[in-house]
Each structure stands twice: as C-alpha cells, then as structure tokens.
C-alpha cells in the first residue's frame, strides 16, 4: 500500500515556533512516531505532505524511504492528499494518516486495511471510526437505515440531529488509489469552512461502487491528535503508561508505573527493579538483576547484570559491567567504561575513561581521559588534571595502585602497577611500578601562635 501522512497544518494552538508535528512525545517528534508505525506496514510509497515549516520538517525526519509533497496553502484535507497523488502507486490502496496523531497501533491500521480489502468485489473505502461520549468537533459518520455508511458530515456543517451521532471519523482512512485523482479533482469547497474536505470523497467512492466500510481501534487513545500543549501532555502520559505496562508484563518491577519516563527504548533482563522518578533516554539496556534507585537519569547506556545504581545517579553514553555499584550521586559521562565489580560513589565523575575489574572510586573524584587498571583504589578527592588549557591528555594508572586521598594526577602521566601514592600528592611525572610516590612537604607545629579574634565595634 501507499501511505500518506498529512502534516501541513500549522498548529496555531501550540503557540510555538516549532512546527506542530515536530513537538516531541517521549523524546521523539510526533511525526516520527507516525513514520515509524507506517514503516512497520512496509509501504510501497511513504509520502509526508508538508506545508508550514516544511523545510524544518524535511530536515528533522528526512530519510531515503520518505518522500515529501508540498501543500503551499492549507486548503483542506482533500487538497492536502491531492498534493501527494503524483508520488503514489495507483495499483495499491492508499492509507492516509495524520502527522499529529502519534499513537495509532500498526495492528489497528492493518485491521482497517484488511476490512477495506475484504469489502466486496471492488476494494472498499475504509474509515477508522470511534464512538465518543462527547463527539463535539469531529466529523460524524452518517449511516442509512440498514447501517451502511452514507457520508461523513463535519461538525460545522452538521444538522442538530447529525450532531447527536456519537460515531466519529478519526480521519484515518484507506482508499483505492486509481480512482482517487478523479474523486479529489471533483471536490468542492462550498462548505462551512471553505475547504476541500477529504471526507467528501466517501460519497464519490460509494457512487463508484466502492463500499464505505469501517473499522475500530483497540483503544480510543490510538486516534487522539495533538492540537495543544494540554493534548500533548495527555498523550505523553498515555504513552508512558503503555510503556510502563509493557515493562510490568515483561516482568520488570516498577516502584510506581506512573513515575517512570522512557524516551527511547529500555531493554530489561529478568528481575530488574526500577525505583521512582527515573528517566531513560536513547537505547538503554539493564541486564538481569539490575536495580536502579530513585531519581536516576540513564541515557544510551548498558548496565551489566547485578549492578546497583543508587539514587540520583546520572549516566550518559557509558557501559557498565556486572555487579558494579554506582552512586548515590555518581556521574558517568560519555566514554565511561566500567568493568565488573567497579564501585563509583557519591560525587564521582567519570568521563572517557576505562576502569578495570574491581576498582573503586568511592568519593568526590574526577576521573577523565584515563585508563585505570584492575584492583585500583582511588581515594577521596582525587583529580585527573586532564586539560592543560589547550589539549586533553591521558592518565594511566596500572593494576593494584593505591591512590591516596586528595591526589592530583597531572596528565599525561603513567603510574606503574602496585604503586602507592601518599595522600595529598601532586603526581606530575611517571611513577615506576611498586614504589611509593609522595611530594616532600614538612609539617610545622608553631608554638605561641595567636589566632585572630573578631573586632567588636
Ligand atoms: C478532520 C476531519 C474530521 C475528523 C478530524 C479528526 C476533514 C474535512 N475532517 O477534521 O472529519 O473528525 O479530522 O481529527 O478531513 N491538514 C493538512 N492540510 C490541510 C488541512 C489539514 O495537511 O489543508 C492536516 C493537518 O495537519 C492535520 C490533519 O490534516 O494533521 C487534520 O486536519 P485538521 O484541520 O485537524 O482537521 P479537522 O478539521 O480536525
Ligand atoms: Ca484536528
């Protein structure tokens, strides 16, 4: 089938410079959600109709399998679809989606397409409909006495009786493509909004012997669109609830499914526990028995089996081995690679650094641009001085080094295996293995010293 995504509307009610369809839901533009769902149906052609902010939209979602059609003026949904016609394959049906309706499931779309395909001798014109308690604002599905769809009437054109109809047009339709050009060309805009309504094609299809048929989504939220920030926030919650539900079904323990945000994909092993208020972004993998404490942010990272991530830990573009302990208040920045059994504690920042098996940096340290071996103990307040004001340099700490508290390692520098560094040392040249490194300092105990006292006015 062809798939056309209508995305030319301007989204005035978003009150934003960003085109409506580029507003993010779960960290991804609304339109990208629709495109991703469309892709799962393997369309022969995938066309996005753009108008307002068209260039920005192309830039944001452009891909080899996506074609764009420009609707310079927003003259209605029928006019919008007409702009895509030259790009379509006339031999297969065309599914029409909206760029601001992000959560429709592929299974629902497939059902609609199948229903239309099985409608009769001629392919049907399929309409995805739902029945709402409050149908105000939507196009209504008008049926005859036998229950057959006759037409769709827009809210603004509907009679008082028609406004009582609770079954509405979600806007998602599937239509035969070959006759579509003729039907669209025949549309008139003599209606309440002065627009070329796609909904008026229904009558043309029926007249040409293509029965109008309907299908329904599994859930009404699948067809909800975004016209305002309120609706965007509502759909974000719907989506997050669905994600949490899927994690629970897969066996993940969530302290509170309502206090979890996944903006990307979160892959969990068995017996994973996630406490409240965690945010996961990009591709995140938590292996078996990982537990994540409250208020953690984890972006594009993999965490090995049995690792404990304690509260307020922040991880980005990092890989952590098994049985590690991170936080509370640890920060792993891009390029942090931690082997099994590593401990990185409170207020420790690790960037572009490898830390070997079983090594520990438990308190208040910065480990950047470094290669730390196995079994290393990094004392509190240790700093790798990686930046000389112009360039970054590496610090190499070999296996079984003991770094005393408050050590500065001025890179580039290498500390040989088994070295002990005394507390408060500035290491500014390489240290041969198995030695003790210290700076000569004296401690003086001065007698007769008088501490200043605060003057009284
Ligand atoms: C449309 C339907 C209505 C349905 C409702 C569901 C028509 C005439 N009406 O109404 O029956 O109940 O959706 O939400 O089709 N768009 C363009 N170019 C245009 C006009 C619209 O690309 O010239 C796009 C919009 O960006 C949006 C979609 O089409 O994604 C729907 O447009 P909108 O103006 O929201 O249609 P409604 O009047 O709500
Ligand atoms: Ca709308």
TrEMBL record:
GO MF entries: glucosamine-1-phosphate N-acetyltransferase activity; UDP-N-acetylglucosamine diphosphorylase activity
DNA repair among keywords: no
Residues where acetyl-CoA binds: 380, 386-387, 405, 423
Top-level lineage group: Bacteria
Cofactor(s) needed for function: Mg(2+)
Pfam families recorded: GMPPB_C, Hexapep, NTP_transf_3
Role this protein plays: Catalyzes the last two sequential reactions in the de novo biosynthetic pathway for UDP-N-acetylglucosamine (UDP-GlcNAc). The C-terminal domain catalyzes the transfer of acetyl group from acetyl coenzyme A to glucosamine-1-phosphate (GlcN-1-P) to produce N-acetylglucosamine-1-phosphate (GlcNAc-1-P), which is converted into UDP-GlcNAc by the transfer of uridine 5-monophosphate (from uridine 5-triphosphate), a reaction catalyzed by the N-terminal domain.
EC number(s) per entry: 2.7.7.23, 2.3.1.157
Species of origin: Paraburkholderia silvatlantica
UniProt pathway annotation: Nucleotide-sugar biosynthesis; UDP-N-acetyl-alpha-D-glucosamine biosynthesis; N-acetyl-alpha-D-glucosamine 1-phosphate from alpha-D-glucosamine 6-phosphate (route II): step 2/2; Bacterial outer membrane biogenesis; LPS lipid A biosynthesis; Nucleotide-sugar biosynthesis; UDP-N-acetyl-alpha-D-glucosamine biosynthesis; UDP-N-acetyl-alpha-D-glucosamine from N-acetyl-alpha-D-glucosamine 1-phosphate: step 1/1
Segments for region (Pyrophosphorylase): 1-229
Entry protein name: Bifunctional protein GlmU
Lineage per the UniProt record: Bacteria, Pseudomonadati, Pseudomonadota, Betaproteobacteria, Burkholderiales
Linker, as annotated region: 230-250
């Amino acid at each position: 089938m062809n798939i056309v995504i209508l995305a030319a509307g301007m989204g005035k009610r978003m009150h934003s410079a960003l085109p409506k369809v580029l507003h993010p839901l779960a960290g991804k533009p609304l339109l990208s959600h629709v495109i991703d769902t469309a892709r799962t149906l393997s369309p022969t052609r995938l066309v996005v109709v753009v108008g307002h902010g068209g260039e920005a939209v192309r830039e944001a979602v452009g891909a080899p399998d996506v074609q764009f059609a420009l609707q310079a003026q927003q003259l209605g949904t029928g006019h919008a679809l007409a702009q895509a016609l030259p790009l379509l394959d006339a031999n297969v049906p065309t599914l029409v989606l909206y760029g601001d309706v992000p959560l429709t499931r592929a299974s629902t779309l497939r059902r609609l397409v199948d229903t239309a395909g099985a409608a009769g001798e001629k392919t049907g014109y399929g309409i995805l409909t739902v029945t709402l308690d409050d149908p105000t604002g939507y196009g209504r599905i008008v049926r005859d006495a036998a229950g057959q769809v006759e037409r769709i009437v827009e809210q603004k054109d509907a009679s008082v009786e028609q406004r009582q109809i609770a079954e509405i047009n979600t806007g998602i339709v599937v239509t035969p493509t070959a006759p579509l050009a003729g039907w669209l060309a025949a549309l008139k805009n003599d209606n309440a909004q002065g627009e070329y309504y796609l909904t008026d094609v229904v009558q043309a299809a029926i007249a040409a012997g293509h029965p109008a048929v309907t299908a329904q989504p599994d859930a009404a939220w699948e067809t909800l669109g975004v016209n305002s920030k309120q609706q965007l926030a509502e759909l974000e919650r719907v989506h997050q609830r669905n994600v949490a539900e899927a994690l629970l079904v897969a066996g993940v323990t969530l302290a509170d499914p309502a206090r979890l945000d996944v903006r990307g994909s979160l892959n969990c092993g068995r017996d994973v526990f996630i406490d409240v208020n965690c945010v996961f972004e990009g591709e995140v993998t938590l292996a078996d028995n990982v537990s994540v404490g409250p208020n953690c942010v984890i972006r594009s990272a993999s965490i090995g089996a049995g690792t404990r991530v304690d509260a307020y830990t922040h991880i980005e573009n990092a890989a952590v081995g098994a049985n590690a302990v991170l936080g509370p208040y640890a920060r792993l920045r891009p390029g942090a690679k931690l082997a099994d059994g590593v401990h990185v504690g409170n207020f420790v920042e690790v960037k572009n650094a490898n830390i070997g098996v079983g090594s520990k940096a438990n308190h208040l340290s910065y480990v950047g641009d470094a290669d730390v071996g196995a079994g290393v103990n990094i004392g509190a307040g240790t700093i790798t001085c990686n930046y000389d004001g112009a360039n970054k340099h590496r610090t190499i700490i070999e296996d079984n080094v003991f770094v005393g508290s408050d050590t500065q390692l001025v890179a580039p520098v290498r500390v040989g295996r088994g070295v002990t560094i005394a507390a408060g040392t500035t290491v500014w040249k390489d240290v041969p293995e198995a030695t003790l490194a210290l700076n000569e300092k004296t401690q003086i105990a001065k007698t007769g010293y008088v501490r200043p006292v605060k003057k009284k006015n």
